[in-house]
Amino acid sequence: MGVPTDYATYLRIDELLDLQQPLSDGAHDEMLFIVVHQVYELWFKLILHELDAAAVALDDARAHAALRPMHRAVAVEQLLIDQLHVLESMSPDGFMRFRDPLAPASGFQSTQFREIEALSGAGDARHLDAAGRDEIHRAQLSERLGGRTLYTALGMSMRAAGFDAPDGDHADARARRMSALASLYRDHDDAPRAVLHELCEAFVDHDETIARWRHHHALMAAREIGSRTGSGGSLGVAYLQSTLDRRFFPELWEVRNQL
Ligand code: HEM
């Protein structure tokens, strides 16, 4: 029999509720700012848990087992967009009351967000510098950057189902992959193809939801800081606007042109 537990013990509620430590006195909205960021990091943790499960299933050619974790990750990402509305209840002057002391802290330094990008195929080794102050975060991100991606795992499942979908950046590999994807998108009536097609669309959902988050986050930032530089030291909203066209799975957007 296990050790008896209760709600507060199991969920470590006391530790959890001790983690919100504002830096400024009397800045009412700082609690909101801290809670929202911490909740984001918890959801990032779950998203990584789900995307990892999807990648493992795809690597093992169990495409059907990747569907539920992909759908769950996307459902959480939708929540992340909705949470931006909560932050938008903060007026710019409310933010200015506590903003200066927290610099250079910025979501730009979120290792888990960079891990989600890396696992989705859009890793960027330059972000190791942002995580660089903390060796554990740096090692965590470094491992992701050298590891498999969701897209290469999808390729494993496609090949196991008989598609000619090789890995790699070479033009020939890319052309064969595009033709395999076009074939899948044109004909997905039988069960194995239907599962792979639904997965590709779940990948597009993931890509689109993060892209919508980028848009909304940039708008929210413009409401809060106008054209000031970011607390992380970037150009601010102008930098965020330069990220809006990033896509995780460009080939899944491109295949639309071949139908
Ligand atoms: C008042 C609220 C917020 C403002 C004004 C804001 C503003 C900014 C700005 C200006 C940047 C560019 C980097 C920099 O120089 O700092 C940035 C990046 C970023 N922020 Fe926020 N942010 C806010 C809230 C959040 C929240 C709640 C999250 C959730 C974790 C978040 C996640 C990110 C991420 C992941 C990036 C990097 C984006 C990229 O490089 O593609 N931000 N933010």
Automatic annotation (TrEMBL):
Record-linked InterPro entries: Trp/Indoleamine_2_3_dOase-like (IPR037217), Trp_2_3_dOase (IPR004981)
A GO BP annotation: L-tryptophan catabolic process to acetyl-CoA
A Pfam family annotated for this UniProt entry: Trp_dioxygenase
Source species, domain of life: Bacteria
Molecular function terms, GO-annotated: heme binding; L-tryptophan 2,3-dioxygenase activity; metal ion binding
Protein name: Tryptophan 2,3-dioxygenase
